From TrEMBL:
A GO BP entry: cobalamin biosynthetic process
Species, as recorded: Halarchaeum acidiphilum MH1-52-1
Presence of the UniProt keyword Ribonucleoprotein in the record: no
GO molecular function, one term: metal ion binding
Keywords: Cobalamin biosynthesis, Cobalt, Lyase, Metal-binding
Top-rank lineage group of the source organism: Archaea
The protein's name: Sirohydrochlorin cobaltochelatase
Record-linked Pfam families: CbiX
DNA damage as UniProt keyword: no
Lineage: Archaea, Methanobacteriati, Methanobacteriota, Stenosarchaea group, Halobacteria
Amino acid sequence: MQALVIVAHGSHLNPGASEPTFAHADTIRATGAFDEVRESFWKEEPSFREVLRTLDSEAVYVVPLFVSEGYFTERVIPRELRLDGWDVEDWDSDGTDADHVALDAADVEKTVHYCGPVGTHDAMSDVIVERARSITGRDDLTDFGLAVVGHGTERNENSAKAIHHHADRLRQSGLFAAVGAVFMDEEPAVDDVATRFETDDVVVVPLFVADGYHTREDIPEDVGLTEDYREGYDVPTAVDDVRIWYAGAVGTEPLVADVILERAADAGADVAAAIETVRERTRTDADATAGD
């Protein structure tokens, strides 16, 4: 038997913080790829500390639904799961390369395949593209600029590395006229999105797991979409003669379920058929939405 555990931050203050986790878990559960699928949170129930005890499977794939490597993926989650012998050096990562490591969990007879965060997997670049296509309703975005938005913080340099990683990959892909990484708490600032690109259209995609205070309030106001988020804004909205297509948190895109499965597959889970199922379902759902 094999089980999947998706671990996420959750929130006591934002009831919508856990919604993407449950949605992606439901998508994966429907494929039947795992005998058991569980959601687990730092700030909600079920907790990191207790989740392994709820499983019958001896092989457990733990995938963090976090944007970047850092305090939670390197310290909190391994500690709460009681992973014997955990050493962050086992990931051999420079901030975006975390893959997986197999460890025994103390006081439960299980082998835990602990994976790197969803946000740094290369497949997340595909999710950003899908997010841009779904918000614009266009497959061809070669005339568009793309701004990948991160929080940024001096306390964790890996936070910015994840944003730059995907911006660099998408810049090299040639799918957009121009691609830039922008931040809320670092330079270059998200406030300057409208003046950073020479294109008439710019898609703004926040690399956040869930929509919350930052994506619903701060970023729309900082970009200039509205002076008061409570008044709403159009998509697109013209800012300094540039049409801004604001996509909201990338973690809410259904294709994220594919990235979770990719992480588990990299760690040895037998999920190839599930990956194809999720990709096909996501494409079908996206086509149906575009036709509305």
